[in-house]
Amino acid sequence: MASDARIPAPIPPPQPKISKFKIALCQLLVTPDKERNIAHARKLIEDAARKGAKLVVLPEIWNCPLSLKNLSKYAEDIDAEAACPSISMLSEVAFRNGITLVGGSIPELSAGQLFNTCCVFGPDGKLKAKHRKLHLFDFEVPGEVAFRESDFLTAGEEPTIVDTDVGRIGIGICHDIRFPELAMLYGSRGRSLTQNREAYTQIYINEDETEVWMMHWRVVRWTSTNWLQQKHQVKGAHLICYPGAFNMSTGELLWELMQRARAADNQLFVATCAPAPDPNTSADYITWGHSGLVGPFGEIIATAGHEETTVIAEGEPSS
Question: Of 22, 60, 130, 241, which residue is the catalytic one?
Answer without folding.
Answer: 60
